[in-house]
Amino acid sequence: MYLSRRKALLLLGSSCVSLLSGVAGASSGFDLGLQGQEFLAKGKFKEAIKVLQEAVKIEPNNEWLWGLLGRAYFQLKDMRAALSSFRKVLSLNPEDTYSRMMIDIISQKPLPPRREEKKKKLTPLEKKALEEERRIFAKLASKQGLGYNIKRIVLDPGHGGFDSGAVGLHRLEEKNVNLDVAKRTAQILNQYNSNLKIFFTRTEDYFVPLSARTTTANQYCADLFVSFHVNANRNRKPRGMETYFCSERASSKEAARVAKFENSVLKLEKTELVQKGYVDIEQILFLFERKRYWEAGGKVASYLQSALKKDLPLKNRGVHSANFYVLRRAKMPSILLELGFISNPEEERLLSHVDFRHKLAYSVAKGILALQNVTI
Fold first, then answer.
1. CB distance 350 to 340 below 8 Å
2. Rounded to an integer, what distance in angstroms lies between the CA atom of residue 215 and that of residue 209?
3. Hey, what's the torsion of the CAs at 50, 52, 55, 60, to 10 degrees?
4. Dihedral sign computed on CA atoms, order 108, 114, 120, 123
5. What is the tens place of the pLDDT at every residue in 237-262?
6. Within 13 A of 297's CA, how many CA atoms are on the CB side?
7. Where are the CATH 3.40.630.40 domain residues in the chain?
């Protein structure tokens, strides 16, 4: 949703008036929501809760207000109230990925006892119910628990069409390797878990803009986004595999180099999507959420890299982060895999073999399935 700059400024001005006049002076749930959002940005979580509680009384079916309230409670470590707020969001919008992720995160640890539980004496039946609740959440928090609930996955075969990606000494093209490994990964995932919903950013050899890849993942309300690539270097000696997640700054010079190469296709795209004179409100809201998505992506990357190094005969180059355009706008945990160096003659030979690609796919699928038992 886009608002003209003038209207956006009027809205901001309206929220400032509400700030000065207090909760009673706000005319709508939207005004209070803007005020609560501003308190959240300043770290004034108690104040945010106060105005957002008033906001949801005015507009009880506004999922945006309940989501803001859930974030405020979460920051104050009131997990019961946060869980209740995020569940309310899902009752209003079952496709809200962020709230589903937050519910999964909160559910990993036992909830603290309710205040009333400390004050009054519990009946035998209440004690039994409380013990059952604690036992369930203890199971969720354990390594044998349910972990991050992955139901919808978007697989992104990097490059395609006129964008071949990296090309090996013997003319093996990255785009074809990426597509083949991604398709094999989907087949294996469906074979072992038929309940998973698997989507692709491309299914054949055609070009897909980087921005459209992430948009696809967001539109499908994915729980996980995995971008498939193979690495390359002017020096033909480097070899091995590595996993990336998104961050503002690259974790190393090598990570910055890889991100620069993967982002280079942007010059072929029209990335100016917002007209001058307009404010992208959705993008502003996303800025509040992306840190948590990126942190979750880092945990996924670390786990998956550990799983891959156990199965694959490739050098373990570890986990890194950089500002990958294809990851930065994803509203879910997202990672980018570099499964070998196509510029290394030996690894190009391996990547050209169907059996090795299947082994890559099997290892990736195995790691994704194991994420169900990992606390994200």
1. yes
2. 10
3. -120
4. negative
5. 999 999 999 988 888 888 889 888 88
6. 31
7. 152-373
Q: Residue 370 burial (CB < 10 Å; 0-12/13-18/19+)?
A: middle
Q: For a pLDDT cut of 70, what percent of the chain falls above it?
A: 76
* Number of neighbouring beta carbons within 10 Å of residue 75: 16
In this structure, how many other beta carbons lie within 10 angstroms of the beta carbon of residue 334?
29
- Segments in the chain forming alpha helices (H): 5-21, 29-41, 45-58, 63-75, 79-92, 97-106, 115-119, 124-141, 174-192, 210-219, 253-263, 281-311, 325-328, 345-351, 354-370
Measured in residues, the chain has a length of: 376
pTM of the entire predicted model: 0.63
Alpha-carbon span 196 to 77, nearest angstrom: 32
Fold for 152-373, please state it: Aminopeptidase (3.40.630)
d(C-alpha 350, C-alpha 343), whole Å: 12
CATH of domain 2-94: 1.25.40.10
